[in-house]
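Lab notebook page, bench 4
Experiment: in silico fold of construct C2
Operator: M.H.
Input chain length: 170 residues
Purpose: comparison with the prior construct
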Amino acid sequence: MNLDEISARLEIQQLLYRYCRGVDRGDKSILASVYHEGAQDDHGGFKGAGADFAVWIVDEMDKAHTIGQHHITNMLIEVAGDTARGESYFLAYHPAAVPDGDGQEGLALAGGRYLDVFERRDGRWAITDRRVVIDFTRAPAPPLPWEAEPAFAQSGRREADPSHGIIAVS
């Protein structure tokens, strides 16, 4: 592996992390930045342009009262010049209604993989094609309170989150 390939892999890894932050913190501009113009995203309930997905998913997540999280785990990235292919495993905790929970909201769990095609255009790596594959899911259970939780800073979306403005994500 040469320095150009190492650099490409690190840049792609960072864009995958920006994707997670964009979804979880509700930042449409960060989320849209991981896609090149004309990129397509097949995300199960959404199939269309990456930029449109950024708007759709943030608006969907804003409807929830609970904050979800996305985690990237194993990554295999093959770089060939200005193109790359990747398979990235993920764990996603999505706010969802608890079955027969009288309106309670919990976190559904999904594990799967992002199958991505990346391109470097004008020196910037971004997704040109994404397909999401689901390996398993679990329905949300009623939330169980943890007595120590109130002592911690509480998360939020956009400016309501304690991390807002601490790190510049571009």
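Observations: The CA atoms of residues 87 and 115 lie 5 Å apart. Residues 3-142 form a domain with the Nuclear Transport Factor 2; Chain: A, fold (CATH 3.10.450.50).
Next step: discuss at group meeting.
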